């Protein structure tokens, strides 16, 4: 994308002054008022942007990746508004979604073609529980305008079995099960592994050489998701020349340009990719510290924090145990 005159002037100013901190924003960033609100910011300048201005700046991008905290109303409303604004500027658009698994593409295609209804889509494609509240508007926008929608996530049962048995599990699968997966399903980037280990095991999780087998397998399962999404975004770009790809994913897969974004850039370095990342508005300070956040994405959007799931530690442990019990019920034989 061509650098705007305003951005160029800013870069020249910084090069002369030698100051690396974020300048005072021309439009103050205010806290989101409700769970539906999102405040978009250009982190390099501190400038607050409305969705229309954001879409103007993204119009030449090949791929726009919008990270989310799953189920947050502010994230999903922003995604829907941005989808419409980008479409106004480029009618050639493809929606790719982590929220559908690649093996369910036939069900998604049947729905888009009007062959099945929404309840049938939800059942046949095993849609997420919050599909109607969070993703229906995005799929319906694409459907009513005859825009392609691609399922982008790896099959959840394969992800669970990789996490349990390791990457060698794929070798025993029949070709029909492997056909939806990328050729290099466990391609890695070192910085992403460090981030993953810190998120799962804490700051003292250890280096790659000392990872436990279980944690290493869990990371390989994560890589299967990211490599699958990267390959599906690239497939959308190749299959629909001239189309802008809008990809929706959990923010861990895209922020800091790691995960899916890093793997996509490895596969196709010529692509112009923009990352938009969510950040919870800090409750203990009047303004966010943008200097600490600018690496998270080309643009940030601030949303209200989600409420605590549990205050009772025992109930939290019981809920986590139940989640893992459901995961272990998958047959990997």
UniProtKB/TrEMBL annotation:
Domain Haem-binding uptake Tiki superfamily ChaN: 54-263
Signal peptide: 1-20
Organism, scientific name: Marinobacter qingdaonensis
Any Pfam family the entry gives: Cofac_haem_bdg
UniProt keyword annotation of DNA repair present: no
Keyword terms of this UniProt record: Lipoprotein, Signal
Protein name, UniProt field: ChaN family lipoprotein
């Amino acid at each position: 994308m061509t650098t705007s005159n305003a951005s160029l002037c800013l870069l020249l100013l910084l090069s002369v002054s030698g100051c690396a901190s974020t300048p005072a924003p021309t439009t103050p960033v205010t806290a989101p008022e409700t769970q539906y609100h999102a405040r978009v910011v250009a982190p390099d300048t501190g400038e607050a942007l409305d969705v229309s201005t954001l879409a103007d700046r993204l119009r030449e991008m090949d791929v726009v990746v919008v990270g989310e905290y799953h189920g947050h109303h502010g994230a999903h409303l922003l995604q829907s508004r941005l989808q419409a604004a980008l479409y106004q500027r480029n009618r050639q658009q493809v929606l790719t979604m982590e929220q559908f698994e690649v093996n369910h593409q036939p069900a998604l295609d049947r729905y888009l073609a009007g062959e099945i209804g929404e309840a049938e889509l939800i059942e046949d494609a095993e849609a997420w529980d919050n599909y109607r509240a969070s993703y229906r508007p995005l799929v319906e926008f694409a459907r009513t305008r005859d825009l392609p929608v691609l399922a982008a996530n790896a099959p959840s049962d394969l992800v669970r079995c990789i996490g349990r048995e390791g990457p060698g599990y794929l070798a025993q699968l029949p070709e029909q099960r492997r056909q939806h997966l990328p050729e290099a399903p466990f391609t890695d980037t070192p910085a992403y592994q460090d981030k993953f280990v810190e998120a799962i095991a804490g700051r003292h999780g250890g280096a790659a050489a000392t990872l436990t087998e279980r944690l290493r397998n869990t990371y390989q399962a994560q890589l299967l998701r990211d490599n699958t999404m990267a390959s599906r975004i690239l497939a959308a770009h190749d299959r629909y020349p001239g189309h802008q790809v809008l990809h929706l994913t959990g923010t861990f897969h895209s922020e800091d340009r790691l995960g899916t974004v890093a793997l996509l850039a490895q596969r196709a370095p010529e692509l112009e990719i923009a990352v938009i990342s969510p950040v919870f508005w800090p409750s203990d300070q009047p303004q966010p510290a943008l200097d600490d956040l600018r690496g998270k994405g080309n643009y940030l959007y601030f949303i209200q924090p989600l409420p605590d799931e549990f205050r009772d530690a025992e109930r939290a442990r019981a809920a986590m145990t139940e989640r893992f019990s459901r995961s272990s019920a998958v047959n990997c034989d």
